[in-house]
Amino acid sequence: MTSENVGHPVAVGVGDDPADQEVVRWAAEEAARRGVGLRLVHGYVVLPYTMDQYVPDSDTMARRAGEAVLDAATATARSACPGLEVSMSLTYGTPDLVLAQESVNAALVVVGTHPHSALTETVFGSTAGALVRDAPCPIVAVPRGSAGPERIGPVVAGVDGSPASQAALAFAFDAASRRGLPLRVAHYWYGELTDVERAEAREDHHVLLAESLAGFRERHPDVSVSFVARAADPVRELRAESAEACLLVLGTHGRGRLVSALLGSVSRDLVRTARCPVAVVRPQTDSPEPQTPARHHSK
Q1: Matching CATH topology for 3-147+288-298 and 155-276?
Q2: Average pLDDT for residues 39-47, to the nearest whole number?
Q3: How far is CA 275 from CA 240, 243, 262, 266, in A?
Q4: Residue 152, class by beta-carbon neighbours within 10 Å (0-12 exposed, 13-18 middle, 19+ buried)?
Q5: 123: Cβ–Cβ under 8 A, 6 or more apart, which residues?
Q6: pLDDT the model gives residue 257
Q7: Closest among 210, 202, 42 to 118, alpha carbons compared
Q8: Domain 155-276 has CATH 3.30.450.180
Q9: Cα–Cα dist 287/276, whole Å
């Protein structure tokens, strides 16, 4: 999290899928942990039509439907966290563009990843995965059924020693501290090695982990830290880690073959198929491209 968005609200994308209410609860609890407000965001578009399909005042109808979605989400948020400050944004535009705009002034953006959800397909689909890559704040993807109170496993951070890993570690330590949970730092790398090469690589990567963790342990003495480092497919191993984790944290840029694992199509697969919420964090020095403005109707 950058210094610019400290104190800014947690924004959550809300669609008309009933499963989004679980995502709203997760986002509300995260906002309460941070002591900030919650911003409910709904983007809508009016589909093109021919003259024989004309529906009078279709924009008004779409806005009313969006208002109903936001009202239901507000009730869910206030039920989960009474006293939480909740605001709403009803905006004309596709969800990916609307959420990209909200990300500029958000502590983080939360989106559900439900199979066959229109919101999921738009935000994490092949044409709109740029939100994960380019948003200036962290993006958290919450899979269906992953946000229950029974999930008390560790926070898991996937690292590779890059600047993005440092940003991910900062987010992960903070998340573990706020939750009172341990942190597991995982470093996996590709490679077919001999036994001697494997031992040497393991030692090198343990040194890399120690260097990556320097300073974080001093700032978060309350967080119990464990780590794993071995040659393995990062995506497969991190997906397996997500089965027990409370939260999986990744960076948006890396080095070596981990770049292709955490960006591109495999990244979208991990974001959409992990069994716990996944936070994707970009380095503070990155500057995203400006987004096309959309029409807002905020409350």
Answers
A1: yes
A2: 89
A3: 8, 5, 16, 15
A4: exposed
A5: 13, 95, 96, 99, 111, 131
A6: 44
A7: 42
A8: no
A9: 28
